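USER:
Before I trust my own judgement here, I would like a peer's view. Write it directly below this note and I will take it from there.

ASSISTANT:
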Amino acid sequence: QVHPVESGGGLVQAGGSLRLSCAVSGNIFRANDMGWYRQAPGKQRLLVAWIRRGGSTNYVESVKGRFAITRDNAKNTLYLQMNSLKPDDTAVYYCNALFLAAAPGSWGPGTRVTVSS
């Protein structure tokens, strides 16, 4: 597996929840800080949550208190629990190692999240 593979997206009403998963190559996952990014229609892809190799987490202000990023190093899988979803959360969500963010060929297909009002 070369690229991350994201899953778990879908259509949800505002206020609902989704849990995204991302399978990552073990060589990349275990050794690096990982992040969830999203790209809304017509906008740039932006980092929204990241988790250090040691487990500490950070969030952008717009998702703080609603999203939770976790990692399972035994399964080489990254998760994003999204609660209290808002229409502004509508986007394609991607995961990647932070150090690969500038490498165009490193991205997976993403998973689409649509939040209806």
User: Anything to note?
Assistant: DSSP finds one helix and ten strands in the chain.
